[in-house]
Input
Amino acid sequence: MKLPVFEGTATALVTPFKQGTVDYAAFDLLLDTQLAAAVDAVVVCGTTGEASTMTDAERLGLIAHTVQYLSGRCKVIAGTGTNDTAHTLQLSRVAASMGVDAILLVTPYYNKCTQGGLAAHFCSIADQVTCPVIVYSVPSRTGMEICPATCALLARHPNINGIKDAGGNLAKTAEILHLCGDTFHVWSGCDELTAPMMCLGAKGVISVCSNVAPKRMKQLTDLCLDGNFREAGRTQVALTPLISALFCEVNPIPVKKALQVQGLDVGVPRMPLTELSEPFSEPLRQALQLAE
Output
């Protein structure tokens, strides 16, 4: 049995930009909001954080800053995955040395390796870092899925803690849980499926929505962890308009706009992502108001 890196809500943080560089002042305000909501962990330099458009120096600088700023008040998970095993290992070793609680490794995108290649990639890195590894399956972005049988193989590695499952397939989630048990933990990577996945046995969510509604997402996962799935279901349904609005265009375009609406200027996404299309602005504002 492995203890999960966290249980409950982890916020997949946006990365604020200003005049082409990381805006640390805005980022600290975002961290303060997460601390005030008592989220269980934060993820820095993930998909929502636009890690794929950041330089190595920017990524590692932001990871170091997050660890130092939070100073143990909240768990820190660092996104260090790339489509190159050697590059991923380099970033992961440095992040681990900074004191992160875990690293998050996305499946290698574009290369589209075999399931055997995925296992070799993840195990190679897990062999050589000092912190737990969470693997990340998001086939809609990468073209690669971590199959349940591969999860069962990864579960045997003592340093691979589990998976951020953003596949959106509850049947496959159930199969992973059946095959792996407590040797491989599951976290929802889909805000809209948080309660259903936790009902099956997931330990929580790595959430986009909690950038703008951290208390509500924390409430949702706390209800699930307490076994109160009837009330959790009601909360999940109530959050549906906001979650839908936050994915009206590709993440993190809408959530950056939502934070600006709330009064926190996190800048605009880096190209090739663009600002939110105007027709979606008012529905997003309305969804934010409904969620208050």
Remarks:
- The first helix runs from residue 24 to 36.
- The mean pLDDT is 97.
- The beta strands are 8-12, 17-18, 21-22, 41-44, 75-79, 102-106, 133-137, 160-165, 185-188, 204-207.
- The chain has twelve helices and ten strands.
